[in-house]
Amino acid sequence: MNKKVIALFLIILLSTLIASIYGVIHNQITYSVSSEFFTKDLFYRFGLDEYFMEAPRLGAAIIGVWSSWWMGLLIGIMFGIVGCLYQSTKMMLRQTLKAISIAIVVAFFTPFIVVSYLFLPEYLNSTSLMQYEVMRSSEVPQNMLIQNDYLFYLAAQIHNYSYIGGLLGLIAGVASMIWKYKKSEITMKLANN
């Protein structure tokens, strides 16, 4: 089997594993913002309400894996395909690992930067916090009371913007790989002249 094909499968596997670990860590942080977002919303949406109320952080970790593995698969496929542009398998792997690092950093910081920009001023002006009413999904019991609507909403926004962060990380990683490839091509052409 071709070394690049093996490298492609390794990249896809590795990026899916990294995305799953990312999801676990991200959800532990988001759980710290609002445990209610998990125990009173996501657990119901994912059908975990009967199983993880006694171990909610474990439930949040499982949701993190379920919510992020597919993004890692997509990123791995895209980075692996772009990585095939490189002549050597070693360079393919090196540049793909750099792109995965870029994607992780962008995906991690995007939701926190966006949420801080959008909601930190309101948090500092606590009189405006009363405007937040939780939008309930159909899976959540209607009689369930949310103790802190603002933190619930904040955690939901961090969760939602993390998908945008993943997409931006994918774009940044692919752009980095293409830029490095073009740069290496120009360098090789200049060296041959």
Account of the protein in words:
- The chain is mainly α.
- The protein has one domain.
- 78% of the residues lie in helices and 0% in strands.
- It has helices at 3-33, 35-45, 56-83, 89-124, 149-192.
- The two termini are 35 Å apart.
- The model has no long low-confidence stretch (mean pLDDT 87).
Brief summary:
The chain is mostly helical. The chain has helices at 3-33, 35-45, 56-83, 89-124, 149-192. The protein has one domain.
Give descriptors for this structure:
mainly alpha; elongated; 193 residues
Would you count the extended β strands for me? Answer: 0
The separation of the N and C termini measures 35 Å
Query: How many domains in all?
Result: 1
Give me the number of helical elements.
5
Structural class: mainly alpha
Which range does the strand content fall in? under 5%
C-alpha Rg, in Å?
21 Å
Low-confidence stretches: none
Largest sheet: none
Helicity, in percent?
Answer: over 70%
Cα shape: elongated
In N-to-C order, the SSE pattern is HHHHH
- Average per-residue pLDDT, rounded, comes to 87
